[in-house]
């Protein structure tokens, strides 16, 4: 038996749609438009300012915070520390996406500094986790989410997998960044970060799989992905979702 039922995961999706959580996104310039549109399609409310003088107000009024290192300049560095510090103090969920840290040692060092503020979730690919110097399975507190052809989710002894998606996801820029924002939205409405991450991963991947079935290429896929995030139904989610999990020393 899996840790979370399809019905439990669907309830998280429904709460995002009904509650409209506010997610403040400190993200990269390439990802801003898609990130905002994914959150809006999901029923959440995005904000994007990076001005240090505004971070306190926007973080205070948000239900969750996203910190994405894809476009890292001095203004963003200052604002990211302020946002992470305030989110930690206020007990608000925040999600770290250490984009491209495997290509920049200074960026990797900064990502490690941000870990001290206790992100609820770290979402990265395999190269980024290796550069972070953290094995996903060794995280007792933060949920570590390794995205790929199969999404892998870890916390302590628990390991979940979501095996949906479409090859066209790799042909559209900022898909992973936008998915991380969806993770933040789900964390805003669900206290169990493992459940929130699994719901977000399933929502995005199932929507992507459905979008890919009718898309003619990356352009039409992008529009279809937003539509499927917006109109995904419970029966389609239950029929399509391929989710399993394990505990150390146990089967699924």
UniProtKB/TrEMBL annotation:
Coiled coil: none annotated. Its EC number is 2.7.1.50. One of its GO terms (molecular function) is ATP binding. One of its GO terms (biological process) is thiamine diphosphate biosynthetic process. Transmembrane segments: none annotated. The keyword ATP-binding applies. It comes from the Bacteria. SUPFAM superfamilies: Ribokinase-like. It catalyses: 5-(2-hydroxyethyl)-4-methylthiazole + ATP = 4-methyl-5-(2-phosphooxyethyl)-thiazole + ADP + H(+). Keywords: ATP-binding, Kinase, Magnesium, Metal-binding, Nucleotide-binding, Thiamine biosynthesis, Transferase. InterPro entries: Hyethyz_kinase (IPR000417), Ribokinase-like (IPR029056). Its cofactor is Mg(2+). Pathway: Cofactor biosynthesis; thiamine diphosphate biosynthesis; 4-methyl-5-(2-phosphoethyl)-thiazole from 5-(2-hydroxyethyl)-4-methylthiazole: step 1/1. It holds the Pfam family HK. This is hydroxyethylthiazole kinase. It comes from Pseudovibrio exalbescens.
